[in-house]
Amino acid sequence: MKPRVVAEMQPKPTDPNPNLKEAVASFLHELAEVRLASEHTVAAYRRDLSRFVEHCGESSLLNHITRMQVQDWLVDCHASGLAASTLARRLSAISSFFDAAVQAGQCTTNVAAGIRPPKQPKRLPRTLPLEQTQALMQHTDRNSDIRDLALLAVMYGGGLRVSEVVGLNLDDVDLNQLELRVFGKGRKERIVPLPEGAVRYLQNYLAERMADNNEQAVFLNHRGGRLSARSVQRMLKERALQTGADVSVTPHRLRHSFATHLLAGGVDLRAIQELLGHASLATTERYTHLDIAKLTEVYDETHPRAKKRRG
Q1: Homologous superfamily of 130-310 in CATH?
Q2: Does 255 qualify as catalytic in the annotation?
Q3: I need a labelling partner for 22 at 20 to 30 A (CA). Which of 8, 203, 248, 258 fits?
Q4: What is the pLDDT of residues 111-128, one digit of tens each?
Q5: Ordered DSSP codes for 151-181
């Protein structure tokens, strides 16, 4: 009698063309157990991919899914009123799924590759109310108070980017002409006028500025070197906490407030474009976008002639 041969257990081969539901389940398992993605990530992928499965049909074979089906699904999602950010996330989930399926040999191509996500509207920072700007300009007991006040006055008063204000050198400052030479993006040079108030703060700081003779930076850190953009951001947060101002303040929010207040005060859009150093007027238009109600509110708060009329 021949001995009985017991066949060894062999792993079940991967189905070369599974249905869509099975392929999604396999992908989610790999995401959780192999890639060790977080529960939140796996849950998000499961929601998005389950909706795609419902759109295509659970019994649809993976290799039969077409690019058109992906596009149609996104169109349906858009028609249902979903935000552009949600559509972009769903497209990313589909593309990741098909990438994994191609690598696993379950399908030959990623049918979602190259589909462009919907353009998401740019979110502009909220303007800083006038009282918040005033709160930031209060004197504090910080050792760097004179420097901080000068930096804030220059940054807000000239509408400078944080990179521009920390990049200022002594020979860029002309206090007689009340202006600065600023180097913006791409080292593009422009001349920025300064309000008299900002000039006074800057004069007070420069009178006490201590630095090595070789250091040309206007704004210095406690070691006497050039101040960094990150230090300015940190200073703003700390100052806001100390003065009771809005802690969400950022250098970019100050710049946006500068542009908005000028627009509310009746300054021509092209003049604002020059002051901000924008290459395109379209950029300035987006940057200073306000609805009429907000524009009226800012105008009433900031324009002295508006206050006289109310009186």
Answers
A1: Intergrase catalytic core (1.10.443.10)
A2: yes
A3: 8
A4: 999 898 777 666 655 677
A5: HHHHHHHHT--HHHHHT-BGGGEETTTTEEE
